[in-house]
Structures are given as C-alpha cells and as structure tokens.
Amino acid sequence: MLKATGNNSEQYSRINWDASKFIGEELYIKVVDNSTGGFGHINVDDFSFPVQPKVIRDIPDINVVINEGDKYGLPQMVEAIMSDGSKEKVNVTWSLTKCKK
User: Fold this and answer.
1) pTM (2 decimals)?
2) CA 29, CA 47: separation in Å to the nearest integer?
3) SS3 assignment, position 77
4) Three-state DSSP class for residue 21
C-alpha cells in the first residue's frame, strides 16, 4: 500500500509513487478525509499512470524476388508481434532496392 498525507494547505504538491511492483494487479485509489472539525475537504488532481507503449518487435529483413512480368503484390498490412506479446495488424511499406530483368 502506498500512502500520502497532505500538508494542511490549499497549495497543491506533487506526490509520485513507483507502483511497478503491482503490475498485473487490480488496484484502487482511496481518498479519505479524517477531519473531525466543522469543516474539512480534500483536493486531489492530476492522477496519471504512465504505461510503456507497445512497440513492434524487431523483424528481420525479408527478401522477395519478383521477376519482370510476374503478377504479384506485396501486402499493405501484416500481423506484427508487439513487445507485450500481443498481435496487431499494422501498415507496412516496402522498399524496392534491386530489380532483375
């Protein structure tokens, strides 16, 4: 459990926690006002949960030989394996480096 207590001021102060040890767990945020007087309130703002973006794993170059006159097309989309192991369809472009006649 991670915990922070305010400084009894209207001035916001940033609190950062490293919650990486909880990756994969379901968590919740609980905000409590323990004031016992006639007036109490809590200000909270700007919750953020940075998540590493998924990226395509390195894919080795693919060599395709297309002879003149062949009727062959290269796909515009492929299924890529992402860094988290999931699969996603992604757009691809092809670079023509050599032509055989």
Assistant:
1) 0.42
2) 10
3) strand
4) helix
